[in-house]
Amino acid sequence: MIETASIRLARPCRDLAVAERFYVNGLGLGVLWRGEGHGPGEHDILMVGWRSAGWHLELVAAGIEPTPTEHDLLVLYLGEPVDDGLVARLEAAGGTRVDQGPYWNRWGVSVRDPDGYRLVLSSREWSNAQ
Question: How many whole angstroms separate alpha carbon 44 and alpha carbon 18?
Answer without folding.
Answer: 13
